[in-house]
Design goal:
The chain is mainly alpha-helical. Helix content is 78%, strand content 0%. Helix 1 packs across helix 2 and helix 2 packs across helix 3. The chain is elongated, with a radius of gyration of 12 Å.
């Protein structure tokens, strides 16, 4: 994506989706954003909820 405004908007939307999907837990949303939803789901399964 070459338009920085469009890229920022898309990143904010993605972060908002992770935030809502993870019960408004910002730490999980950020982890999901950084490693992906499947990676986060696996980490929660293996490590449990905190």
């Amino acid at each position: 994506m070459s338009d920085p405004h469009q890229a920022l908007h898309a990143a904010a939307q993605l972060m908002a989706r992770y935030y809502q999907a993870n019960g408004k837990d910002y730490a999980k949303a950020l982890a999901g954003y950084n490693c992906g939803g499947r990676c986060l789901a696996h980490a929660v399964r293996v490590g449990g909820e905190q």
